[in-house]
Amino acid sequence: MKLLAVTAALGLTSTVSGCLLEREIAAEREYALTGKRSEYHAPPSSRQASTTFPIGEGDRFAGGCVTPVGLGVNDRDLESVLAVKEVGSALKGLRRGFPDKVQLFEPPFETYEGRKFPGAIVGDNPRVFIMSGIHARERGGPDNVIYFLADLLAAQKAGTGVTYGDKSYSAEDVEKALSAGVVILPLTNPDGVAYDQTTDSCWRKNRNPESAVGAANGRDIGIDLNRNYDFVWDYNKHFYPGTDPASDDPRSEVFYGTGPASEPETEAVVWTVDQYQNITWFMDLHSYGPSLLYAWGDDETSTENPDENFVNPEFDGKRGLVGGPDPPNATYKEYFLESDLEIETEVTNAMVASMLKSGGSEYTNYPAVGLYPTSGASNDYAMGRFYGNVSCGASRMFGLTMEFGEPSSSFASCPFYPDADEYHRNVRQVGAGFLEMMLRAAGEAGDPLYAEC
């Protein structure tokens, strides 16, 4: 019954024209629904080790003529990781399949290599923002986002629920989740991902060469985009010496760039959240190490002293000493409203419980600084727009980071490359976690609260 319902919901029995050959379209539709192919398919790459889940080399969405189908409505073999060009094609497919629900957009920026940032919106006043693909080697992030949204839209149209492993959600849950509205930017580092997918070089940064110093191995090219946001970006000023939340050395994997938001990839995210003042939940999807990070990443969190905040120069040079020596100045903690901390803790608890039920990876949740202190990170920037009063009228955002998946042993040179089992497990577990977040965003925890001007 689920297969028939989804087929009808997606309109996959109708005739498609003006895209690829009909036999190619039919083959892609058949695979989306049954997991079986006939005649045409987008072949996986043969470059990677045989146990690493390959990169797709064709376009399974046929330039937007085929609507993506996630694992929550049809659990099957997805065959390969989405190639860069397939991300935009998938979003066009969602638009084609759900024209009354999905709107597409592109922030007005281009990468160094001339690529754009395709995005999608569901809902008139979206409360949730999801981004992924900021670190190039973290394979499967864009896939997780696209297949999750595809699941919700297909289930809503068919009047059914979704199932991830042993975790099921009802049709009512799907309706409630979608009522929150969502904005997605699935691929925020397209140049880096394209390079990583063609070189298998475990590449992290973008591909901007302007700060390169001529290193023989080429690792001096690019900026770590998750150290480039305008949140205590100048770590030499804001952090205690030696804590090293970023680097000013272009050869470093955490090189922070030439200034806050110096990169078009960063500007694209900032521009997007500027457009939607009702966004209250901000999710940045990463891998690996199954965990959900909440609260601040620059230092430990406190609900006691509002003066201890990132815009107060009195505390410059004192941040980042998490569990550090006493003295000097290891008592600084970044202020957070107690009610916000309770909400983020409760929601990530629920996400962990759901993700544990939907797959095999043992997720945990903890404050973001527990991973390591960071400067210029996306989720801190999102929360800081409200807490630092740095954006007049900005909505309070709950900033979360999800680190999906386990370190992979299938490709010795890069533990971020999943094998087939890990890839599919990630799609299921991320979908379950996202759905829990969307359900909370649709309730009181998603009500906007605006910064005073």
TrEMBL record:
GO terms classed as biological process: proteolysis
PANTHER family xref list: PROTEASE FAMILY M14 CARBOXYPEPTIDASE A,B (PTHR11705), SLL0236 PROTEIN (PTHR11705:SF143)
Position of the signal peptide: 1-18
Native organism taxonomy: Eukaryota, Fungi, Dikarya, Ascomycota, Pezizomycotina
UniProt domain Peptidase M14: residue ranges: 80-441
UniProt keywords, alphabetically: Hydrolase, Metalloprotease, Protease, Signal, Zinc
InterPro entries documented for this protein: Peptidase_M14
Entry's family note: Belongs to the peptidase M14 family.
Catalytic residues (UniProt): 403
Cofactor: Zn(2+)
Ranges in a coiled coil: none
Protein name: Peptidase M14 domain-containing protein
Molecular function (Gene Ontology), one example: zinc ion binding
